[in-house]
Amino acid sequence: MQSHNRVTLKSPPEQQAMRVAGRLAADVLDMIGPRIAPGMTTGEIDRICHDYIVDVQGAIPAPLNYKGFPKSICTSVNHVVCHGIPGDRVLKAGDILNVDVTVIKDGFHGDTSRMYPIGEASIQAKRLCEVGFEAMWRGIRTVAPGNRLGDLGHTIQSFVEGQGYSVVREYCGHGIGRVFHEDPQVLHYGEPGSGLALEPGMTFTVEPMVNAGRRHVKLLGDGWTVVTKDHSLSAQWEHTVLVTASGFEVLTLGASDRAAA
């Protein structure tokens, strides 16, 4: 593993380990998605995911006890932007939920999240989720050797703002590997041609947080939960991406996306 500026370039065996971890993280979301329904608590979702990661996958849920985080996944509902703590909140029809999963397998991390409408979400909520999904993919498609992180950020920002939404700036994507959060920081806004030049072997997350209202957020008193200041809805999708010699490889595709690829 080479590194420069604290950005690690993964060797082929390390890339393979990242594929395994990414696949496992996606499998958790594939497992939990069909089970999510009105009347469940976010704590139940956490418990099901925890048991699956530990007992079925033989992996480690990275968030558990990470800097004191008390649960194994993050569950962010409605105006919660990220890092929602699972608990006794009961999901109701019309809510939108982000489930964020990071697993550690053989020392490497896989990190991914998806949005789930609970029952029938409003047209506005669905559109927000769709724009967030498209924004993530537009960002991912900029990834290739020699392109810069500013290209990725600018692509996401210009698309999201063109749809009348805003991009959160305080939280961003990140390098990932043996370490949960390493360099580089992957901003979801920026100027084309600026920032780090991408090289084969880099692995990082692309995870734009898209708000229906203004971009401003605040951290709640629990020290984790981030919400929109104006209480508008927020949506987020996340993949872990590898820079390849010719472009990119998404390491956290779900089974349906892998079948389509």
Explain what the structure shows:
The protein is of the alpha+beta class and 261 residues long. The chain has one domain: Creatine Amidinohydrolase (Alpha-Beta Complex). It contains five helices and 17 strands. The mean pLDDT is 96.
TL;DR of this structure?
By secondary structure, this protein is an alpha+beta fold. Helices cover 28% and strands 26% of the residues. The longest helix has 21 residues, at 12-32.
Q: What is the tally of beta strands?
A: 17
CATH class: Alpha Beta
Low-pLDDT residue intervals, each spanning 5 or more residues: none
Element order: H for helix, E for strand: EEHHEEEEEHHEEEEEEEEEEH
CATH architecture: Alpha-Beta Complex
Entry keywords:
single chain, 261 residues, alpha+beta, Creatine Amidinohydrolase, four-stranded antiparallel β-sheet, three-stranded antiparallel β-sheet, 5 helices, 17 strands, 26% strand
Which helices and strands occur, and which strands form pairs?
Blueprint (H helix, E strand, L loop, with lengths): L1 E3 L2 E3 L2 H21 L9 H15 L3 E2 L12 E4 L2 E3 L13 E10 L2 E10 L5 H18 L8 H14 L3 E2 L5 E3 L6 E5 L16 E4 L2 E3 L5 E3 L6 E3 L5 E3 L2 E5 L4 E3 L4 H6 L1
Antiparallel strand pairs: 1-2, 3-6, 4-6, 5-14, 6-7, 8-12, 9-10, 11-16, 12-15, 13-14, 16-17
Helix pairs in contact: 1-2, 3-4
